[in-house]
Amino acid sequence: MTDKPATSSQVAEMQNPGQEEQGKTLRRVVVSSFLGNFIEWFDYASYSYFATVIALVFMPSGDPTVALLETFAVFALSFLMRPVGAVFWGNMGDKKGRKWALTASILLMSGATFLIGCLPTYAMIGLLAPVLLLLLRMVQSFSASGEYAGAATFLAEYAPTNKRGLYCSVVPASTATGLLCGSMFATVMYSVFGHDSAFVTDWGWRIPFLLAGPLGLITHYMREHLSDSPVYAKMQHDLESKKGNTVRAPFRTLIKKHPRVLLISFGACMLNAVGFYAVLTYLPNYLIDTVQYDSASASLITTICLVVYIAFIFFSGHISDKFGRKKMLVTACIGFVVLTIPAFYLLGTKDFFTILAVELVMCFLLTINDGTLSSYLTETFPTDVRYSGFALSFNLANALFGGSASFISIGLIEATGNAIAPAWYMVAISAIALIAMLLSHEHTGKDLTEID
């Protein structure tokens, strides 16, 4: 999968291709980037919505609550592989190329997801079943950690400078689409066959995982037939012309030369990590368990919010091209600081339209952050460490704060007895992110080759 270094004529051709060919290439980059993240988050949603079935299939029989907790423990443990995968894929993406990392990671990620759908049950092989489930989840998480950062970097380096935010917003939109499709798939299956039907427990839950196989092969094929980005090819050519070598140690360079930028980026990603999981996955459970709201209505509100969220993402990406990434991200931080606590109080009204309005406002604030963050991170790091810087800051924040968002929120309510406690946690994270953004620099509209 390693590509030969580009010659000066090839670099010039990639930087100035024909308009029609450029459009076709950009479309292929967009579709392959969308599909890669879609697979990851369709799997995430499927695992969450079929958690009770997976607990029944893979965990020892007994207390169903304990089995469910064990199922989510497997999910949480897999997040520990995110920073490890970020270092590996970021380093390889900067050293061997974006294309190399993305074509390798999609095969590993989709392959592990497909194999989860093929696993024998606890009744067949005993304790080996949950052990294999954990191992495959860890492989999937390891490989997925390079997907979001790699897809965004690849898109940013191909996209027109004045539309970079819009094109990069495809990546967060694909995550929300994966969540939406996973939710709808589970809802339809439960509605048609029932939660405890033999079809669902035997084969139905396996279908979304098995779909990752063909989708992964299609995405791999598309990426295999793309050239590496013009920005990356130019950097490689310049390095070879001056020194006769390529990037040798991207991760070491990132830590030694760009620690301040890395720390600021991590702070910016903290809000995205907590906000995404809190707004799109924790709030439905908060409404049902804490507010005692009707579960069907809570699910309907979540579905509506996901659809609107996808549209908001593209709007935010487009607006960020006009007003700048820093202004957008600062706005999102201030919005969460000011509105989160009133929003949680309003959720307690149990009024459908009030709750819907509140969640839509929260979704809009999240998309101001989420629709801008991917383009901001690609513009923050220079080309030789762009993949590494993006992957490490994004995945470390998600491993520490994203995967634990629901757990911490529930723990705060239990410890304080205050149903609004998660809102204060969200405000604190938003304040930290705001400080990070105020210390950052604006690079909107710059050529990526000029960022140092």
Automatic annotation (TrEMBL):
Membrane-spanning parts: 41-60, 66-88, 122-139, 170-193, 261-283, 295-316, 328-346, 390-413, 419-439
Superkingdom: Bacteria
Compartment(s): Cell membrane
InterPro entries: H+-coupled_symporters (IPR051084), MFS (IPR011701), MFS_dom (IPR020846), MFS_trans_sf (IPR036259)
Gene Ontology terms, MF aspect: symporter activity
Membrane topology: Multi-pass membrane protein
Pfam families: MFS_1 (PF07690)
Domain Major facilitator superfamily (MFS) profile: 29-445
GO cellular component, one term: plasma membrane
Compositional bias (Polar residues): 1-19
Keywords: Cell membrane, Membrane, Symport, Transmembrane, Transmembrane helix, Transport
Residue span of region Disordered: 1-20
Family, as annotated: Belongs to the major facilitator superfamily. Metabolite:H+ Symporter (MHS) family (TC 2.A.1.6) family.
Function: May be a proton symporter involved in the uptake of osmolytes such as proline and glycine betaine.
Protein name listed in UniProt: Putative proline/betaine transporter
